[in-house]
Amino acid sequence: MNIEIKNKTAVVTGANRGIGRSITEIFLQAGAKKVYLAVRDLDSVKELEEKYGNRVAAVQVDVADKAAIQNLAKQTPDAEIVVNNAGVLKQADANDPNAEEALAYEFNINTLGLLRMAQAYQPILKKQPEAAFVQLNSVASIKNFASFTTYSASKAAAYSLTQGLRETWANDGIQVLSVHPGPIATDMAKQAGFDEADPADVVADGIVESLATGAFHVFPDTMAKQFEAVYHDYATQVIEAEPEG
Ligand SMILES: NC(=O)c1ccc[n+]([C@@H]2O[C@H](COP(=O)([O-])OP(=O)(O)OC[C@H]3O[C@@H](n4cnc5c(N)ncnc54)[C@H](OP(=O)(O)O)[C@@H]3O)[C@@H](O)[C@H]2O)c1
Fold first, then answer.
1. C-alpha of residue 242 to centroid of ligand 1, in Å
2. Pocket of ligand 1 (CB under 6 A)
3. pTM of the predicted model, to two decimals?
4. What residue segments make up the domains of the chain, in order of their start?
5. Which CATH number is associated with domain 9-239?
6. Could you tell me the distance, in angstroms and rounded to a whole number, from the CA of residue 154 to the centre of ligand 1?
7. In tens digits, what is the pLDDT along the chain, a chain of 245 residues?
8. Measuring from atom 43 of ligand 1, which residue has the nearest CA?
9. What angle do CA 240, 4, 156 make, to 5 degrees?
10. Ligand 1 centroid, distance to 190 Cα (angstroms)
């Protein structure tokens, strides 16, 4: 499927800062009709509301809360593109006494949050003539980074679920994107200890481009492209292979 942003209505979780904010602004600049800003704190998107007026609408959600996600979906029945961007990272290696707690926290937001969003939006997206679900995974979905090993595990599980969504939703006509950024200059990259990071706009631009080309895997930035160079054959010949039977 090939989807243009122009005149589309999108939902972006975590639209208030970092990559989510950049996706919001790039979608609007590319002609999106409307972007629902799905955020925990409605005050955090006042500036975006002032800048874009009625082309944006703030809706409260905590992706740890299944009922809140279902409520979000009810308030956004015209969604055509859903970006599951909200995510969290804790620094914890395998020896860290807090690793179990970190994994449970990250799994709840990064992995179960994805499943909750996907299940809430499937009935809405399958009714649209053109629809897409964009999942923010990571290079850490493919390679475990030992200093944030639990985050990596949560993103590997999210990537696995994203592959399942792609196959299950093929019959519903929903395009699924698995986005795998390397370090991107946001609060999260600082938390992860990266000094060098590409700007968030490269991720947003990569999503717009991949929606238009129908690509499943998106490797938008400098480090991501290094991963893609060696991962490409496995991605296309194994992950994206047509299911047997
Ligand atoms: N930055 C990177 O280097 C990088 C690389 C690869 C993948 N990613 C992924 O890209 C996505 C965005 O990352 P980022 O760098 O922009 O992170 P960020 O700057 O830390 O922002 C995280 C966003 O997620 C929201 N969020 C966190 N927990 C939430 C919850 N329970 N319910 C609703 N919203 C919640 C935050 O809202 P609040 O403001 O309310 O906290 C914030 O808007 C994440 O999924 C991340 O794993 C990031």
1. 32
2. 13-14, 16-20, 40-41, 44, 61-64, 85-88, 109, 136, 138, 181, 183-184, 186-189
3. 0.98
4. 9-239
5. 3.40.50.720
6. 13
7. 789 999 999 999 999 999 999 999 999 999 999 999 999 999 999 999 999 999 999 999 999 999 999 999 999 999 999 999 999 999 999 999 999 999 999 999 999 999 999 999 999 999 999 999 999 999 999 999 999 999 999 999 999 999 999 999 999 999 999 999 999 999 999 989 888 899 999 999 999 999 999 999 999 999 999 999 999 999 999 999 987 76
8. 14
9. 35
10. 12
Question: Other C-beta atoms within 10 Å of 67: how many?
Answer: 9
Side by side, which strands form the sheet with 217-218?
A: 56-60, 34-39, 9-13, 81-84, 131-136, 174-179, 217-218
Of the candidates 45, 108, 117, the residue with the CA atom closest to the CA atom of residue 85: 117
Q: Whose CA is nearest to atom 24 of ligand 1?
A: 86
Q: Which amino acid is at 47?
A: E
Residue closest by Cα to atom 17 of ligand 1 = 188
Task: Using the atom order of ligand 1, give the atom closest to the CA of residue 184.
Answer: 3
